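User: If only I could read backbone structure tokens as easily as an amino acid sequence. Underneath my words sits a plain record pairing an amino acid chain with its backbone structure tokens. This is the protein in question:
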Amino acid sequence: MTPNRSTGFTPFFLAYGAEAVMPSDLDHDAPRVKAFNRDQSIEAQQDAIDLLEEARETTVICSARYQQTLRRYHEGKIRGRILEVGDLVL
């Protein structure tokens, strides 16, 4: 999965605290799959859970910054409209 531009994380990571393993990774013995060690994975999973809340907070901050950037861009592109004598305003 591709990380979201505004947050820097994949939606899967933000939901589950780990990156997804794709079926193609299992079929083709990706380095990540070959290096899997059950004992180390339990410890790594606990570390990821501890860091997940920090990642979610970072996501909220990045998302807010991204929204502000988009708002500034949009407001810079808006031009005022001058009403003509024949225009009807309701």
In short: Residues 28 and 83 are 64 Å apart (CA to CA).
